Amino acid sequence: MKINKLDSIFITLLCISVISCGGGSSNGGGSSNDDEKQVETSNKPSFTITSSDYDDGGVIPEKHADDMVIGGVQDCANGNAENLSPQYSWANPPEGTESFAVIMDDETDPCLPGLGACVHWNVFNIPKSKTELPGGFVFPYDDPIVVADGSGLEQALYFGMCPPRNNEHTYTTTIYALNSNMPLLDFNTTYTRESFSVQYKNEILGTAEITGKYIYIPN
User: Fold this and answer.
1) Pick from 188, 99, 93: which is nearest to 149 by CA?
2) Does the pLDDT at position 3 exceed 70?
3) What string of DSSP letters covers 190-201?
4) Is 168 in the same domain as 81?
């Protein structure tokens, strides 16, 4: 059978169309796999931190305020301050997490945002096996966990809340999931959440945070 030039062009185009459709089907399969991976990732539980002492965005109890006494009267609370660190639990850290750090700070005026925040708590070198810091946390001296206040003293120092009277402040606690490159930290350096995030951006795998509010209104 004689095939003229037009028929030849038509057959060539038809073949190209078939090949393209086949390729599309193959690529479609790849796209489906990508979609499945995205669904799997989106269904993975989020990294979270919670407290048994207060809800996210709620009021932090007075027992966690600074118990400083001036003139025989507590200066930051109405008699119930104990300067106890809140309880925190966390779940679903990112894959590859080797340790954690917890930082609590206050960015409410007269404190400043970011690097100028008022630091209340730094807890470093928390082993990946731990899922909680109990309330009023105190660590044994042979534990790798350290609580830093910049003084070099090996104490579980937590600085309770003490905002100006009649002024509500917001306190943010962030937990950092850290990879195997994170160095052990000592007692001599303190970080705001911002400065820690900048200093260790390559070691941070993920974060979770909880906020609480406190106001001291004298009786």
Assistant:
1) 188
2) no
3) ---HHHHHHHTT
4) yes
Of 107, 103, 104, the residue nearest 204 (C-alpha): 103
CA–CA dist 181, 184 (Å, integer): 10
- CATH number of the domain enclosing 204: 3.90.280.10
22 and 108 assigned to the same domain: no
SS3 77: coil
- The tens digit of pLDDT for each residue in 112-141 reads 999 999 999 999 999 999 999 999 887 665
Separation of alpha carbons 108 and 169, rounded Å: 6
Cβ neighbours around 131 below 10 Å, total: 12
pLDDT tens-digit readout, 177-193: 999 999 998 877 889 99
Q: What contacts 103, CB < 8 A, 6 or more positions away?
A: 119, 121, 122, 123, 173, 174, 176, 191, 192, 193, 196
For residue 1, what are the contacts with CB-CB under 8 A and spacing of at least 6? none
Based on the structure, what is the number of domains in the chain?
A: 2
Dig out the tokens for 3 from the structure. 């095939």
Q: How far is CA 58 from CA 83, 201, 213, in A?
A: 18, 29, 6
Note the pLDDT tens digit of each residue in 63-100: 999 999 988 889 999 999 999 999 999 999 999 999 99
Q: Is 181 left (phi over 0), alpha (psi -120 to 50) or beta?
A: alpha
